[in-house]
Amino acid sequence: MSPKLREGEYVFAVLTQEQVETLNPMLLFEEEEGKTVVITKAEAEARSIHYDAVWNLITLTVHSDLQAVGLLAAVSNKLAEAGISINVVSAFYHDHLFVLPEKANEAMRILEQFPK
Q1: Other CB atoms closer than 10 Å to residue 95's CB: what's the count?
Q2: What residue ranges in the chain does DSSP mark as E strands?
Q3: pTM reported for the whole predicted model
Q4: Adjacent-strand bridge partners of 99
Q5: What confidence tens digit (pLDDT) does each residue in 20-52 have?
Q6: Cα–Cα distance for residue pair 63/21, rounded to 1 Å
Q7: How does DSSP classify residue 55?
Q8: From the centroid of its chain, how far is CA 97?
Q9: How many other CB atoms are there within 10 angstroms of residue 34's CB atom?
Q10: Is the distance from CB of 38 to CB of 29 less than 8 angstroms?
Q11: Angstrom distances, CA of residue 59 to CA of 15, 18, 51, 53, 104
Q12: 77: part of which helix (H) or strand (E)?
């Protein structure tokens, strides 16, 4: 799965369409309650955007199939056993795991132990 801990700190926030239009979000997802964005912590602070937690990002650099069964369940279970919560985003090419910064190195250690 070749996990890679990416540089930077990220936050999740819920914003209005007007706020979103002025940002450069890594992720935008529309929910009934508002538009959820993932942006850098630096961008959130520069624009006084409220967020609850800061996250690091681990990308599983293996090309993942959007129809594959079981990979994320296995990853989630293994990290949950270690008390590590994750927020998962599956994009076209890769799966991405947002983890709390204090758990990022431990998560990487666990992910690197998965069979190649």
Answers
A1: 21
A2: 3-5, 10-15, 27-31, 34-40, 56-60, 86-90, 95-99
A3: 0.90
A4: 56, 86
A5: 999 999 999 999 989 999 999 999 999 999 999
A6: 30
A7: B
A8: 4
A9: 15
A10: no
A11: 25, 30, 22, 19, 12
A12: helix 71-81
pLDDT digits (tens, 9 = 90+) for 44-70: 999 999 999 999 999 998 766 655 657
Per DSSP, 108 falls in state: H
With both helix axes pointing from N to C terminus, report the angle between 71-81 and 104-112 in degrees, rounded to the nearest 10.
130
CA distance readout (Å), 81 to 78, 84, 87, 114? 5, 7, 15, 14
Burial call 36-55: b when 16+ CB within 10 Å, e when fewer: bbbbbbebbeeeebebeeeb
Amino acid code (one letter) for 43: E
> What pairing do the DSSP bridges indicate for beta strands 34-40 and 27-31?
antiparallel
Mean pLDDT value across the chain: 91
Which domains does the chain possess?
3-112 (3.30.2130.10)
